[in-house]
Every structure is written in structure tokens, then in C-alpha cells.
Amino acid sequence: MSGRMRLSAFQLGGLNDFSYLHTNCFELSIYVGCDKYPHESQLPEEWENNRESLIVFMEQVHRGIKGLVRDLHGKGIPNAVISVEGVNHDIRTASDGDYWRLLNPGEYMVTAKAEGFTSSTKNCIVGYDMGATQCDFTLSKTNLARIREIMEKFGKQPVSLPARRLKLWARKRRQRG
């Protein structure tokens, strides 16, 4: 197989699947010849036959999108979910809010969402040039999260709606008599 690579046969439930589904890691098994376990004397020739293809293939990890998900104060939001329309696998941001996502060249609608924050969607274009497209997000807190934050700051807890109705009912009843 001079100068060409062959990807391994699809295997359900292998380590590659686990890495992709449960981490942000995309893992492949690549065999560079017809023999899965070539003799060590064949390795230099296999390397020379496949070196350029392997290097070009490895450079593809720099294609796609990358960025930061931050709050309005510029602080990274950990564990935010990054969804790409048409791709059935979300990823999550790292502890400092950064993320990276392999994508082929094209135009993508990308959404960042995190608990307690309003989600944000933007159009990100991945070009044919090497290098990831920067696609940053700034999320604002939801109104409920902001209210809770303010109330906690002043030592008060939010009143649930049923409790509020009960208080109003009791107040009206007292006023009537």
C-alpha cells in the first residue's frame, strides 16, 4: 500500500468509541500496510511509504473550531456544552472555559449553553487553510440565576410561587376580616 493509509475496520464498543463518546478525545486506529503485525525489518520501508500521508493526516487536528466560553466578567465557564447543528455529539468546555472541535471545512451553526446562563448561537466558518477557526462565546446569566445571586448576596432566599400565592391569599383573608 505504497503511500496510502487504511483505517481500521469499524468496531463497535472498542476503546475508540469510548474515547469519542465519553471524553473530548477523537481516537483512530490506523494500519499502514496489509499486515497488521509486520516484521520489524519491514517497518523502515512502511514508514517511508506512509510518512507523508501520516503527517498530512495528523495535521488535520488543527482544522475545525476552537474558542472560549466566558461570562460577562470574562471568566471562563467550565463544563459548558458546545453543540454543532448537524453533528450528533456535543462536547464540553474545560475548567477554564476553552474548547476545541474537529470539523471539516464548511459553515456551521454552533451553540454554547451552560446551566444558569442564556445560550448563544453563532455561525462559524471553517476554511480550507490549516488552523482552527476562533469561535468565542460570551454568555449572560439567566434572569432567575441573577435574582438568586442577588438574593443570596443579601441573605434572602427566593419565595416559591405556591408559597407566594398562599401568603397573598392569607393577607387578603385578613383584610376582609
Give a nutshell description of this structure.
The protein contains four helices and ten strands. A hairpin with a 6-residue loop joins strand 4 and strand 5. Belongs to the peptidase M14 family.
Detailed description of the structure:
Helix content is 29%, strand content 25%. With 177 residues, it is α+β, with helices and mostly antiparallel strands. The strands form three sheets. Strands 3, 6, 9 and 10 form a four-stranded mixed β-sheet that branches. Strands 5-4-7-8 form a four-stranded antiparallel β-sheet, with no helix packed on it. A two-stranded antiparallel sheet has the order 1-2. A hairpin with a 6-residue loop joins strand 7 and strand 8 (120-126). Residues 1-9 have low confidence and may be disordered. Residues 1-61 form the Peptidase M14 domain.
Fill in the keyword field for this structure.
single chain; 177 residues; alpha+beta; four-stranded mixed β-sheet; four-stranded antiparallel β-sheet; 10 strands; 25% strand; disordered N terminus
Poorly predicted residue ranges: 1-9
User: What is the approximate shape?
Assistant: elongated
Radius of gyration: 26 Å
The whole-number mean of residue pLDDT values reads 84
**What is the helix/strand order?**
EHEHEEEEEEEEHH
Distance from N terminus to C terminus (CA atoms, Å) equals 94 Å
- Strand residues, percent: 15-25%
The description of the largest β-sheet is:
4 strands, mixed
What class do helices, strands and sheet pairing give?
alpha+beta
DSSP summary: helix tally: 4
The helix fraction, in percent, is 25-40%
Task: Report the strand count.
Answer: 10
